[in-house]
Specification:
Homotrimer. The protein has 193 residues and is mainly α. It has five helices and four strands, in the order ββαααααββ.
């Protein structure tokens, strides 16, 4: 198998069901989902697998779901069934609830960081928000984009926030509160979300 095809040398790329410009919002959306997947892989290398066995299982599952999400976003073929399901969103919600119960109560915004793996997860969180914004832009252009993709990315960024806090907690490192933050959280969730 050759890794290069030369078919993209003029700024076009193949997607499922057609070809588009490489800077098309669809390519930006699924490319950003791929970027998330890379940061997840990096974070997994930074975690102790014995202390974070449950997290490893989550993150491996998420890596597969991100491939599903990217494939769904890369498709303009109405014949191709979507792979990402609402069950994936529900699973993230159940894990977020567990993280909220495990980590200390939160009242203020926190600074990203604490430990190296938590910082990597915070990067994944912010890239996930970018992917979500790009997917919303894509939905404005193509009404056939799965709404589950946006739901999943929205929930995934929340999952990463909760996970970063749990990582720091399990490693005995306190989150650093943003010093000028008002009390914006109630019951571990941000007001208005």
């Amino acid at each position: 198998m050759r890794l290069y095809t030369r078919t993209g040398d003029k700024g076009k790329t193949s997607i499922i069901g057609g070809r588009v410009d490489k800077d098309d919002v669809r390519v930006e959306a699924y490319g950003t989902v791929d970027e998330i997947n890379c940061f997840v892989g990096q974070a997994m290398l930074e975690l102790d697998s014995s202390l974070f066995k449950d997290v490893f299982e989550d993150l491996e599952r998420i890596q597969h779901e991100l491939f599903d999400c990217g494939g769904d976003l890369a498709s303009v073929s109405e014949k191709r069934p979507l792979k990402l399901t609402e069950e994936a969103v529900s699973h993230l919600e159940s894990r977020i609830d567990i993280f909220i119960a495990e980590a200390p109560e939160l009242e203020r915004f926190i600074l990203p960081g604490g430990t190296k793996p938590a910082a990597s997860i915070h990067i994944a969180r912010t890239v996930t928000r970018r992917a979500e914004r790009l997917t919303v832009s894509l939905m404005k252009e193509d009404e056939n984009v799965s709404p589950v993709a946006v739901q999943y990315l929205n929930r995934l960024s929340d999952y990463f926030f909760g996970l970063a806090r749990v990582i720091n907690f399990r490693l005995g490192v306190k989150d650093v509160e943003y010093v000028r933050s008002a009390n914006v959280f109630r019951d571990g969730k941000r007001k208005g979300e």
